[in-house]
Here is the input.
Amino acid sequence: MKPKAFRGKGLVQLNEQKQLPATSADTAVLETEKYKLINNIVTSMKLSSNPVVLPASDLNDMVQAIRMYQQQIAQLRTPDWVNDNVDHIKEYANRTFLDDWPMPKHK
Here is the structure.
């Protein structure tokens, strides 16, 4: 027998996978149009700030994706030979690559 957990209205399986509701192309278009309309209404109010209306689930998914990528990037390590090559180039050129920052504007 599989272990069960209490969630909200009743018992569910612990290893139950979350299923998203099936959406058709028409439903997706309607959702998109709905949020475009809401955001146009908010924009027309000419508020001093610039609010945007988004579905909370989409915002949560985006935040989770960004956090996941941040963790993956934090785990990356530049190989020593790459750092050594960059250091040699800096020594040869007697520059740090940031000497001209910000880049001069060309006319």
Summary: The first helix runs from residue 25 to 44.
